[in-house]
Amino acid sequence: GICHLRHEDFGEGGSSLKAMNLQDRLKLGTSTEVSSLKAVPTLVTGATGKVGCHLVTALLERGADVALLTRDPKSARSLWRGQRLDIHSADLTDPSTLVGRLDGIELVLHLASYSPPPQAPNLYQAASHWPVTAEGTRNLVDAALAAGIRRFVYLSSVKVMGAAIGKGPVDEATPPAPDTLYGRAKLAAERSVLTAGEAGMQVCVLRSPMIYGLTGTGNIARMIDAVARNRFPPWPKIHNRRSSLHVQDLIAAALLAATHPRAWGCTYLVTDGKGYSTRWLYERIRLALGKPVPGWAVPYWVLATAACGATWLETGFHRRMPFNHEALRKLTEDAWFSSDRIRTELGFTPRHNLAEEIPRMVKEYLDGTR
């Protein structure tokens, strides 16, 4: 499997296993076998988010002792009814709420960040990204250091790389150049985590691109809906390349980073290894829907004019439009990244790609609309 996570039955040694620290557990594995997370006290932030839900489920399946840090304990309890979870109320922007919350924890998996309302304009420029994502991560790292946390994995974003990255695939050697407040906040958060690594904590940062496989949500799911409703125009043959990653592969990478000694102090880009053009996605979705691919395409200048008009309306009405300049840039420019480093150093191998996933997502969409 991707992580080679083992589920050994330690029998009467189970109690002694729980008493072992994480570094001792890691010695149980080999260079090609990642040790189990069974009974490891693990704290997750951002657990109620789209990715966080999958991560918590994966940890529970592997027998980890899971604790959640959330501003909304009621929502968290409703997601995992009947599960053994320690749910703590805390706000990353308020350091006083973190006091004592990390006691007894060995591993932190940090996903929490600011999520603007869906209709808010300029999603990536929202002012709250900085206090929640940048300062909140620093507060969490400080609390983790004070509590003696051994391992800390931060799930970041390729947005730290910025948009002007040139032709890819880009790797970790490319200097980050974020061009949004969201990207700058993520980069500041990364630096807080890596600085804690210099202080002795075993840390790892993962940068992920667009995530798919989120059961009806996400950019590709929205594109499927738009194509199905004939609200997505015949796309021009622009050969851009954008990276993506299935949510289960992101979870596998996170658990691998949490248990592989070579990950300590490293930053990894994680993708499914492919580069997809918008035109390719458009054609695959239409075919999966049983629709023919049109023999014509909307000229780029028409799309650009529409995007400029929508962006102007956003400014005037303070409401996000479904198609604007930011959306056009995403759909026409490159955001192509290499995940060779995590593959060669940690043995990460993605199990999913969009060529196989789009038909499944389209079927899921059609089943939900019947």
Structure overview:
- There is one protein chain.
- The protein is globular.
- The strands form 2 sheets. Strands 3-2-1-4-5-6-9 form a 7-stranded parallel beta sheet, with helices on both faces. Strands 7-8 form a two-stranded parallel ribbon.
- It has a domain at 11-211 and 245-273 and 338-351: NAD(P)-binding Rossmann-like Domain (Rossmann fold), CATH 3.40.50.
- The chain has 370 residues and is an alpha/beta fold.
- Helix 3 crosses helix 8 (247-259) and helix 5 (129-147) runs parallel beside helix 6.
- Mean pLDDT is 87; it is low at 1-34.
- The protein is 41% helix and 12% strand.
- Strand 5, helix 6 (181-198) and strand 6 form a beta-alpha-beta unit.
- The longest helix is centred in the middle third of the chain and has 19 residues, at 129-147.
Q: Give the CATH level 1 class of the domain at 11-211 and 245-273 and 338-351.
A: Alpha Beta
What is the CATH architecture assignment of the domain at 11-211 and 245-273 and 338-351?
3-Layer(aba) Sandwich
Q: H/E series, N to C?
A: HHEHEHEEHEHEEHEHEHHHHH
Q: Give the C-alpha Rg.
A: 21 Å
* Class based on secondary structure composition and strand pairing: alpha/beta
| Biggest beta-sheet profile | 7 strands, parallel
N-to-C CA distance = 35 Å
Please state the average pLDDT score.
87
Strand-residue fraction? 5-15%
The low-pLDDT segments are 1-34
Number-wise, the strands total 9
The share of residues in helices is 40-55%
Strand order of the largest sheet: 3-2-1-4-5-6-9
CATH homologous superfamily annotation of the domain at 11-211 and 245-273 and 338-351: NAD(P)-binding Rossmann-like Domain
**Silhouette:** globular
Total count of helical runs of at least 4 residues? 13
CATH fold field value of the domain at 11-211 and 245-273 and 338-351: Rossmann fold
